[in-house]
Each structure stands twice: as C-alpha cells, then as structure tokens.
Write a structure and sequence with these properties.
CATH superfamily of the largest domain: GrpE nucleotide exchange factor, coiled-coil domain
CATH class of the largest domain: Alpha Beta
Number of domains: 2
Strand content: 15-25%
Largest sheet: 3 strands, antiparallel
CATH architecture of the largest domain: Alpha-Beta Complex
CATH topology of the largest domain: Hemagglutinin Ectodomain, Chain B
Strand order of the largest sheet: 1-4-5
Distance between the termini: 104 Å
Order of helices and strands: HHHEEEEEE
Structural class: alpha+beta
Number of helices: 3
Length: 181
C-alpha cells in the first residue's frame, strides 16, 4: 500500500514539474543535451589543462634561464675582480725572485705592491672602514680590547688591530679595534 502511495506521489510531482516547465517555457534537458554539455566540459577541461602545462613549462624555462644568467653574472664578476688582483700576485712573485741584498729597495717594492693592491680594491668599490679616533660602531667595528683613558671620550676607537673593509653598504670585514670605556 505504501508503495502505491509513493508511486502516486512521485507521479504527481513529475506532473507538477512538467506543468511548471511548460508554463515558464523551460525545456527539460534531454539526455542528448546532457551528453553534449558533458563533451563541452571535457573539451574545456582539456584546453585548460593544456594551458596550465604550457604556463608551467614557460615558468620552468624562466626559472632555469634566470639561474643560468645568475651563474654567468657571478662568473663574470669574479673574473673582473681577479683581473684587477692578479697583477698584484705577479708583482709579489717578482719580489720573491729578487735576490738582492738592498733592503731599502725590497721595502719600496713592497710599498708599491701595497699601493697597487689598494688601487685594485678601490676599482672594484672596496674601501677601508675608518676606525682610529672614530666613535665605536658595532656595525663596523669589532671590539677585542678595552682600556681606560680619561683623556679620550668614552666609546672611542684608540687602536686598530686589523683593518675593516666595506663595499657600498655591505661590510666585508669589521675592523678589529681597541676601545676606550
């Protein structure tokens, strides 16, 4: 009995939906239209997947290309720096080959090599960090010793134990200093 009531209720609902569809002018989608819509969705999905794969391949190529360019840029910069520094090494080798006993000439030669090396560093933008007599700056100086001196202002660098160097805003090596407390 319940089955008959359910069947009758289902038939009434289908009739009402059909009547509403006829009154509003809506068509009930046929199986053929459903298959056509499904096929369209499959085609759109394939097109989107192809587009995704192409974009991913472009991105991967871009990533590889920029990594290669970065390596080439680094290698070029290194070669440029070494081109400026290698003549200093050449002069040191010449100085070591010098077998003369004239200490004054050896000292002059070493002074010239030091000047040449400082010029090479300046050409690549490296400069010495000012330290002695300056106010202690923990960004630029590394205090390895402290002393008491009433004639000097507090936190003043009194002695440089090892020079520091900077390139632009980047500290290459902090100056090792002695500071007055």
């Amino acid at each position: 009995m319940n089955d008959n009531i359910n069947e009758e209720l289902a038939e009434e609902i289908v009739d009402e939906i059909s009547d509403e569809a006829e009154n509003t002018g809506e068509d009930i989608i046929s199986d053929e239209e459903k298959i056509e819509n499904y096929d369209q969705m499959i085609e759109e999905n394939a097109a989107l997947q192809d587009k995704y794969l192409r974009i991913y391949a472009e991105y991967d190529n871009f990533r590889k290309r920029t990594a290669k360019e970065k390596e080439e840029l680094y290698a070029g910069a290194t070669a440029d720096v070494l081109k400026d520094i290698l003549p200093v090494l050449d002069n040191f080798e010449r100085a070591l080959q010098y077998s003369g006993d004239d200490l004054l000439k050896v000292q002059e030669g070493l002074q010239m090599i030091k000047t040449q090396f400082a010029d090479a560093l300046a050409r690549i933008g490296v400069s010495e960090i000012p330290a002695e007599g300056e106010q202690f700056d923990p960004e630029l100086h590394h205090a390895v010793a402290h002393s008491q001196d009433e004639s000097q202002p507090a936190n003043t660098v009194t002695h440089v134990l090892q020079k520091g160097y900077i390139k632009g805003e980047r500290v290459i090596r902090e100056a090792m200093v002695k500071v007055v407390n």
